[in-house]
Amino acid sequence: MLKETSARVCGARSMLIIGELVPSVTDGLVQAGWQVLRKKLEEVSVALCQQASVGLLRVTSVDVVECRRLLLSCSTSHIRWIALLDGAELEDSRVRALVNDFCFDYCVLPVPLAHLLPAVGHAHGMAGLCCPERVRSGVSGLLGEHPAFLAFLEDLSRVGMMNVSVLLHGETGTGKELAARFVHDCSARAKAPFFSVNCGSLAPNLVQSELFGNEKGAFTGAHDKRAGYIEAADGGTLFLDEIGDMSAEAQVSMLRFLQEGTIIRLGGSKHLKIDARIVAATHVDLAQSIRDRTFREDLYHRLRVCQVCIPPLRERLSDLPLLAGHFIEKYACKFGLPEKRLSKEALGLMLTYPWPGNVRELENRICQGLIMARGCVLTPADMGFGGAEQGSSPLQVQRGTGEKTSLLQSLAINGGDCNLAAREIGVSRATFYRLLAKHGISPRQFRKDLS
Ligand SMILES: Nc1ncnc2c1ncn2[C@@H]1O[C@H](COP(=O)(O)OP(=O)(O)OP(=O)(O)O)[C@@H](O)[C@H]1O
Ligand SMILES: [Mg+2]
């Protein structure tokens, strides 16, 4: 059994063989110093792929879809894939696309050991270039290597491959939207549309028509019939963000859609059959919302066929340097600035900070730091840490006693601009609007351009 360490990717020559390979070739690989693990396609997991530098994958026209799903879901690992095929299989455009999209190389069977050894050696060398040991999703941009995060990714790729509704639960800024994309990308629907709707930001009088569409004349201003988001996502995936904010009326229609797979456009009577997969996300405890009678229990059970929880950043702080490095690279490139590094003091502080805004807050602080830093080092002050944050955050300290004050101050400082104000306190726009509604605050009163 391969040991669980991603250092293997750079060091020991570990190989995963998926599917049959003639015993003499396998023996030859072992004799050449390869640590070989053989698995069937259905036995392979993301975690397994983290442990090998090279994967030999037997691809046939029959299981090409399964192979694609596997390679998609394992795109978070460093493993370099070499496809093993019969020559005739290259006639199949799906096989060619798979090799082209995911594989480092391919070999036509029967492959002699003398031919395979240089190919796997080269693939191993290329995998080693990916060090330091970071795990990156080539598909959805989810970064992380903490065991809790890897377990979450593995759960996500498992449910992603199944055609079921998924409920994502995570605090603000943990990456729910990225996770929903990942689920879509892992699925057989990957090439079909993916739409994302924030249920909290839909105007109450428009929710029904936005989600389910409308017929001509359904309401004043409905000059034409229009498809809603569910119809638009036919064949693909619809991501319903902040599902806890969905109106009672829309919940009823959504339940019918999940039960029957049909919708009725607003103002219409015809049942339209739609095949859209629903991935929903929430940061609130829906069980509590059910007790509060603001969320339907029957809908909850339909949505959470599979539930996946995203770990907050404070529970995977060992990922912080990796994420910070990624955001420094991203924003230095975006703004044409030289790459800078975190000061020791900044890193120390960040490793004890509870990150209420999670990865989004980290991203925003790094972005701010890169812009503000005078030299080549990001200090705590550059990133907006005032000194009182250790062990708590501006928003968290004030939560309960001063959440409203924090919102009012950020709006006042930013002239009513919700984007800037949300960024200032380290929450997403969606969360910011939710908090405004909770406290009954209107940003209009802070806009200087209004008399
Ligand atoms: N694991 C991660 N790796 C890289 N970037 C991440 C990761 N998680 C989140 N991000 C980044 O953090 C930001 C917030 O992510 P996202 O919008 O998916 O979070 P969210 O949970 O939907 O937040 P909210 O509840 O506030 O809407 C995005 O810019 C995203 O790219
Ligand atoms: Mg979101």
Automatic annotation (TrEMBL):
Parts of the chain that traverse the membrane: none
Pfam families: AAA_lid_14, Sigma54_activat, VpsR
GO terms for MF: ATP binding; DNA binding
Any Gene Ontology biological process: regulation of DNA-templated transcription
Gene3D superfamilies, sorted: 1.10.8.60, Homeodomain-like (1.10.10.60), P-loop containing nucleotide triphosphate hydrolases (3.40.50.300)
Keywords annotated in UniProt: ATP-binding, DNA-binding, Nucleotide-binding, Transcription, Transcription regulation
Signal peptide: none
PROSITE patterns in the record: SIGMA54_INTERACT_2 (PS00676), SIGMA54_INTERACT_3 (PS00688), SIGMA54_INTERACT_4 (PS50045)
Sigma-54 factor interaction domain mapped to chain residues: 142-371
PANTHER family cross-referenced by the UniProt entry: TRANSCRIPTIONAL REGULATOR-RELATED (PTHR32071:SF120), TRANSCRIPTIONAL REGULATORY PROTEIN (PTHR32071)
Protein name, entry field: AAA family ATPase
The organism of origin for this protein: Craterilacuibacter sinensis
